[in-house]
Amino acid sequence: MNLNAYVSRPLAFSVAIVRGLWGYISGSLLAVILAELAWGYAPYLSKLLIDYVTAADQTLPGTAWTAAWLALGIVGLSAVSMLSYRVSGYLSATWMNQMDKRVYKELFATLSKHNVGFFADNFAGGLATKCRNVSTGVW
Q1: How far, in Å, CA of 83 to CA of 17, rounded?
Q2: pLDDT at position 54, please?
Q3: Is this structure's pTM higher than 0.90?
Q4: CA-CA distance, 130 to 136, in Å (whole number)?
């Protein structure tokens, strides 16, 4: 990648850096959407459970089973929500670390193309620190 092509175009640089990471990004977004949907339906199932238990004829067979299935549905939706948030966090951490690594590698590749005089005038640790600051400052 030629970083000089992106000097005045930060949006194009961001798109070029995340190329190939769209699976992680879209997976993370879909996991959050799934988690929010599951978290939003749990109160609805709670309402159904309370309405069913208070309004149902307790002598009918299957009343306890229906209430048990509704309660298990609430627990299941909560588990799906929490698991989806964990998956989203894992995918987000993965693509952010991959993006950080790409920026760091590109900056060092560009830095290595400078002439020897540039390195004689600049301290190597200072150059590495600048590359790290830029790569972590991208996101």
Answers
A1: 29
A2: 81
A3: no
A4: 10
Neighbours of 116 (CB within 10 A): 7
Q: Are 49 and 74 in contact (CB under 8 A)?
A: yes
And the tokens for 73?
């549905």
CA distance 16 to 14: 5
Closest residue by Cα to residue 49 from 70, 77, 28: 70
Model pLDDT, residue 138:
59
Distance (Å, rounded) from C-alpha 91 to C-alpha 23? 9
CA 94 to mean position of chain CA atoms: 8
Radius of gyration for the alpha carbons in the chain, expressed in angstroms and rounded? 26
pLDDT at residue 75 tops 60: yes
Distance of CA 130 to the CA centre of its chain: 27
Q: Kindly compute the dihedral angle of the four CA atoms of residues 56, 62, 65, 70, in this order, to the nearest 10 degrees.
A: -40
pLDDT tens-digit series, residues 30-48: 999 999 999 889 889 888 8
Q: Positive or negative, the Cα torsion across 56, 60, 75, 80?
A: negative
Cα 81 to Cα 33: distance, rounded to the nearest angstrom? 9
